[in-house]
Amino acid sequence: MSNYHVNSRFEKRDKRRKTNIVLNTLIGIVVVLIIFIGSQLILGGNDAQKTAKYNEQPDIKLANEENKSDDAVDSDKQQSNEEQEISENEQEDSDEANESEVNNDEALTSEPLEEATITEGEPGSGIVETIENPSWEPVGTSQSEPHAADYTKGSQDWAEMTKALSYATGIPESEMIIWFLGNNGSPNDAVGTISPKDKSAKYKVYITWVENKGWKPTKIEKLN
């Protein structure tokens, strides 16, 4: 009878031991599963964040490129505005210079003739009349002193003498034929024979050099 009880106790212990082993094994499996699933969730979350961050980078790059593009457009606009302003200033300066030149030419070609003295020429002299006007002024010069007349066509002197001939007669330089332009016996005196392009009249114009002021008409002879 005692052996039966002993065996029964051993059997119960063995069952409990086996049960504990099974429970411990199941607990171990559950713990491993929890750890595995948790690690997957953590790693998956990091991958998702990395993927999201990577996907956001093109947008950031695109935004940067758009900002650079906007800056380039603004720079081009600013440069274009500056160039336009410079061009407008240059145009204004050119217009002012042209206006000043036109006003100067108008002042030269609009001298009043009320003070002019007109004398009829002697018969057979080839001179129809002689005109002298005390209101005539020197036409101005860009040359420095001492001055030596240069009668070479195309020289500065030639240009300024031509201007004086036009000023005295009122014939525009572009409409003038110069038949002769040269010295009149003195280093500071010159004479030119001119006519308009239609050759409707012919004039002999005497001019003299005024120091630092340029050539000044002194007398006009209207020729036959």
From TrEMBL:
Q: Origin organism of this chain?
A: Metabacillus niabensis
Q: Which residues fall in a compositionally biased region of kind Basic and acidic residues?
A: 56-80
Source taxon at top rank: Bacteria
- Membrane-spanning ranges: 21-43
Q: What is this protein called?
A: DUF1510 domain-containing protein
- List, as start-end ranges, the regions of compositional bias called Acidic residues: 82-104
Q: Which residues form the DUF1510 domain?
A: 131-223
**One Pfam entry name:** DUF1510
Q: Which InterPro entries match?
A: DUF1510
Keyword field: Membrane, Transmembrane, Transmembrane helix
- Residues folding into a coiled coil are none
Report residue spans for region: Disordered: 55-153
